[in-house]
Amino acid sequence: MLFERPDGGERAILVHLDGQDPEAREDPQEFQELTRSAGADTVAFINVSRHQPSAKFLIGSGKVEEIRDLVAAHEVELVIFNHTLTPSQERNLEREFECRVLDRTGLILDIFAQRARTHEGKLQVELAQLEHMSTRLVRGWTHLERQKGGIGLRGPGETQLETDRRLLRVRIRQIKSRLEKVRSQRELARRGRRRAEIPAVSLVGYTNAGKSTLFNALTTSDVYAADQLFATLDPTLRRLELDDIGPVILADTVGFIRHLPHKLVEAFRATLEESSNSDLLLHVIDAFEPERDAQIEQVMAVLGEIGADELPILEIYNKIDLLDGVEPQIQRNAEGKPQRVWLSARDGSGLELLGQAITELLGDDLFVGTLRLPQTLARLRAQFFDLGAVQSEEHDEQGDCVLSVRLPRIELNRLVSRAGLRPTEFLEQHTLQ
């Protein structure tokens, strides 16, 4: 395995830079959560107030000396920065601290490497890691950067560094080719679902908002759910039965985070396309989180990157069990359509309201009416019963059956077409007022 991790937690110093532009500023609490999720043992948290980052170290030389002394005193193995470091900054800091230095992108990549379970997930993580590493390859090979002449030093005309870069490019091409096959397989599966006219619903949201807990509550599944960042990495699909709608495909997807590295968005495009091809997005929001408005903005930004921000979205305010005086409820917009659902996935309160809201949004084009079917259409009558669309049945004087039905119009048109009839003519002739 190219990227191996130690078994135990590594002793780490965390460095957070404060005083930057508010748009670029990272959340120190989220940073500590990330390092906890990665399994690091935090020795010290250094908060650096600096308005103008240093080109050489990002932080000032005084702070570099302070951290270097802490590294030596506590035998620290790793220094993690809550910011993106350039390759030269990373090398300079490692030379000063004499230990490994990791930036925010590398930390998130490490968490993803731990969480990947499926072959596809591991490929996506490896691709992101290789692309991140390709800009930092000079480290460790400085003695071979230049070709040398002389006995024993004449070679094939390629330095070790160039060889490594070429091998990385080959491996990246191989992974991208495999992921392209995954994308085409997913697209085939989606086409099959579209042909069967099964709606797709995706759970999206900030990491640790409770998506997997909600997914398990709705589908009675046992998807891994934990109070940690990026507990879910691999997408999971389950079939969900809804009243009046019938079967729905529900997808649990990877959580988003502030300043999600672009390499990860690119690498996980095959997975994130599950969201961009959905009929409805359920945006799960941690109602107890003080920074929830900022998190909502970040989620919408990532949805914009994958072309999913124009899809219908239902906001799910989760974790109301942690709030005082908040009851499960549906909030509607000016047109009366569900806009938000307040619930608790952990204790199950409000789940029936969520089912009602999804049904309303997906069942916009619902046929509710009474049909008179002659005996020649007995097979069509049986299909209505098989779908559970019949609410009541009577027979008139001519022996025709009079059905009170409720089902999606798409499903009605499909059944009528299969019976060899034209849907519009059928409804004109058989619908009773």
Concise account of the structure shown:
The protein has helices at residues 28-38, 61-74, 87-97, 104-115, 119-134, 160-195, 211-219, 262-267, 269-276, 292-305, 351-362, 378-386, 409-418, 423-430; strands spanning 11-18, 41-49, 78-81, 100-102, 200-205, 236-242, 246-252, 280-286, 313-318, 329-332, 338-342, 366-373, 390-395, 401-408, 431-432. The chain has 433 residues and is α/β, with parallel strands linked by helices.
Describe it.
- This is GTPase HflX.
- Residues 199-366 form the Hflx-type G domain.
- It comes from Serpens gallinarum.
- The chain has 433 residues and is α/β, with parallel strands linked by helices.
- 41% of the residues lie in helices and 21% in strands.
- The chain is built from 14 helices and 15 strands.
- The strands form 3 sheets. Strands 6-7-5-8-9-11-10 form a 7-stranded mixed β-sheet, sandwiched between helices. Strands 2-1-3-4 form a 4-stranded parallel β-sheet, sandwiched between helices.
- α1 links the parallel β1 (11-18) and β2 (41-49).
- α5 (119-134) runs antiparallel to α6 (160-195) and α6 (160-195) runs parallel beside α9 (269-276).
- The longest helix has 36 residues, at 160-195.
- It is elongated and about 95 Å long.
- The protein starts with 10 loop residues before the first strand and ends with a strand.
- 32% of the residues are buried.
- The model is unreliable at 1-8 and 139-155 (pLDDT under 50).
